[in-house]
Design a protein that fits this description.
It contains 2 helices and 7 strands; from the N terminus they run E-E-H-E-E-E-E-E-H. The chain has 138 residues and is of the alpha/beta class. The protein starts with 15 loop residues before the first strand and ends in a 37-residue tail after the last helix. The C terminus is likely disordered.
Length: 138
Amino acid sequence: MDIKIKPAKKFPFGSYYGPSNRYWADSLLSFLQLQSNDTCIYLGVTSKDISTTKGNIFNYGVMGLGLMSDKASVISTYRLGNTEKLNQCFYKLALHEIGHNSGLPHCKENSCYMLDTEGRMKFDSEYFFRSNELFITC
């Protein structure tokens, strides 16, 4: 995978939600979509808390957000904490969100990178994609 690190950018106007001190992941995705091109997936990385609307929950805190077949994802290290496995958790979180961008849905297998964490970190058991999944990025 060809990875290029771009200079940091300021958060887009309107992405901050003061009552919970979070940034809207959906706004960040929209901003990143404007930066992307047809051949690359953009992965925005922040240490700030991010959220989205999930079901009935208006401001649901998430570790990352990537939409199916989109060209951008955003992840946050905020919920990863300061664990000794931080790099491993970061890597798996990035793979998970880029997996969504590549068209992969959530799976129910505990050891699959595409497992929905449902608000809990489960990075210790994830170590593969399902055999019928194809993961492609630029």
